[in-house]
Amino acid sequence: MKALVWHGTTDIRCDSVPDPQIEHPRDAIIKVTSCAICGSDLHLYDHFMPGMKNGDIMGHESMGEVVEVGPEAKGKLKVGDRVVIPFTIICGQCDQCKRGNFSVCERTNRNGHIAAKAFGHTTAGLFGYTHLTGGYPGGQAEYLRVPFADATHIKVPSTLSDEQLLFLSDIFPTGWQAAVQCDIEPTDTVAIWGAGPVGQMAIRSAILLGAKQVIAIDRVPERLDMARAGGAITINFDEESVIERLNELTNGKGPEKCIDSVGMEAHAAGTVDAMYDRVKQATMMETDRPHVLREMAYVCRPAGTLSVPGVYGGLLDKIPFGAIMNKGLTIRTGQTHVNRWTDDLLRRIEEGQIDPSFVITHTVGLEQGPEMYKIFRDKQDGCIKVVLKP
Amino acid sequence: MRYETDRTRRRGHADTATDTLARGLGLFSIALGIAEVVAPRALARTLGMKGQEGLIVGYGLREIATGVGILASKDPTPWIWGRVAGDGLDLATLATALEGNNPKKGNVGIAMAAVAGVTALDVYCAQTLSRESPHPLPPAQDYSDRSGFPRGVEQSRGAASDFEVPRDFRAPEAMRPYTQPQAPQNPMPSM
Question: What ipTM is given for this predicted complex?
Answer without folding.
Answer: 0.91
